[in-house]
Design goal:
By secondary structure, the chain is an alpha/beta fold. It has one domain: L-arginine/glycine Amidinotransferase, Chain A (5-stranded Propeller), CATH 3.75.10. 26% of the residues lie in helices and 25% in strands. The chain has nine helices and 15 strands. It has a three-stranded mixed β-sheet, with helices on one face. The chain has a three-stranded mixed β-sheet with strand order 3-4-5, covered by helices on one side. It is globular, with a radius of gyration of 17 Å.
């Protein structure tokens, strides 16, 4: 079976990405909440180098090239779809500018042999950045401006054998900004998480501690450069945005191997890190 990614840390066997295009480098920063307008050639070069890290690791890369009009954020393939053991779950974007990405990525995945298992509907909202696999049978769901209670309910309906648990997110800087659950936590090994503790809800912090997790803490200045946004390629092997040396050291001190990528255009300007740029389609055994 060529799909199934109910893990944050299993070996990344297949992954969907989308190259930057005109919609991205022509994006109005104010409209899209970017820090400044991305540069064309530099964005392409950065993205290609990032994808080469995945390929060098041995991941099969699926390029999502379905047509989308003016969807600058569509390079962040993590958000529109979740891939369960039963197939793709088309989510429902809380950011109105991103509506339509769900079906487009779903079509690309179908071409790659991934069936559509479920589609969120009605008032449900859910984005992939709010969905964190604590283990293969436990999905933490961040409830905030991008994901709501009805989205959580439908995810539970789609995956009845999974324990779907709510994590209530803070207001932070408001509805226009993007604070996902994974804005302040990434899981990179069975018992290692990268965390920015200032934003961690206390019940969730306690739950992870009770499960035996060790935390690689992110200092405040590295939160703003996406220190918590780390993609596991396999248990204890991960890739993160360059320029976060203390977070990187804290990971290494906990036994992790870390590769960094340059993301001035594709990450820092557009506020999306290594995890955001990828939609895991198949993860292997957690060994």
């Amino acid at each position: 079976m060529a799909y199934g990614a109910q893990s944050m840390v299993g070996k990344l066997e297949r992954v969907a990405v989308r190259r930057p295009n005109e919609a991205f480098w022509n994006a109005d920063p104010k409209k899209w909440h970017y820090t400044s307008q991305p540069q064309h050639e530099a964005a392409l070069a950065e993205h290609d180098a990032f994808v080469n890290i995945l390929k060098d690791f041995g991941s099969e890369v699926i390029y999502h090239d379905e047509h989308l009009e003016e969807h600058a954020d569509s390079i962040f393939t993590h958000d529109p779809v979740l891939v369960s053991k039963d197939g793709a779950i088309l989510l429902s974007m809380g950011k109105k500018l991103r509506e339509g990405e769900e079906a487009a990525l779903g079509k690309a995945l179908e071409k790659a042999g991934v069936p559509i298992h479920y589609k969120l509907s009605g008032d449900a909202l859910a984005e992939g950045g709010d969905l964190l696999w604590v283990d293969e049978e436990t999905l933490a769901v961040g409830l905030g401006f991008r994901t709501n209670q009805e989205g959580l309910r439908q995810l539970q309906e789609a995956m009845p054998h999974v324990n779907v648990v709510p994590v209530h997110l803070p207001y932070f800087t408001g509805p226009e900004a993007c604070l996902h659950l994974m804005s302040f936590i990434s899981i990179v090994d069975h018992d290692v998480a990268v965390v920015y503790e200032e934003l961690m809800p206390v019940p969730f912090w306690k739950d992870l501690k009770e499960r035996g997790f060790k935390f690689a803490e992110v200092p405040k200045d590295e939160f703003w450069t996406m220190g918590p946004n780390v993609l596991a390629l396999a248990p204890g092997q991960c890739v993160m945005l360059e320029g976060n040396p203390q977070t990187q050291k804290n990971l290494v001190d906990l036994g992790c191997e870390v590769v960094t990528y340059v993301g001035r255009e594709i990450s820092l300007k557009a506020e999306g890190g290594a995890t955001c740029l990828t939609r895991p389609v198949l993860r292997g055994n957690n060994v």
